[in-house]
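#onboarding

Welcome to the new folks! Below is a worked example of what a typical request in this channel looks like: someone posts a single protein sequence, and someone else replies with the predicted structure as tokens. Don't worry about understanding the tokens yet, we'll cover that in week two.

Example request:
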Amino acid sequence: MKTIQSIRLTEDVTLVVLSNTPADIRFVSRVFDELSQAGVNVDMISQSPAVGDRGNISFTISGEQLTPALMVIARLRETDPAIQLSISSDNCKIAVLGEEMRHLPGVAADVFRAAAAVRADLRLITTSEVDISLLVTKADAAETVAAIEKAFA
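Example response:
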């Protein structure tokens, strides 16, 4: 049987998606430098593969940090008006954690199967060797956590 160490739920998570951004590490560095300088703590980060010289960056922040993040994004858009912004508020992050994931195939499949069984509205997925994080709507959070717990019971 596959096991996990813990499942953690974080509420009031806002997803910020910057589309049509320069596909350049200097731009990515600028985004996160400016957010840091504004006191915005970023959690999940995902970058889509570039199409030509443009790409997409998604990241999550706490809902209370949306205003300073929007101020940073407004400055970025002043220098590159082609950047598009999409925001999804009132989400929850579900983090499935376990050191044993490092050597245990199928944990991600089990997590995704559990989320699919309850038709969770997934907004973002990030992973590491020991963590699978799902961003879901607040409405789907409790049911998704319960399904994941059941999958590993």
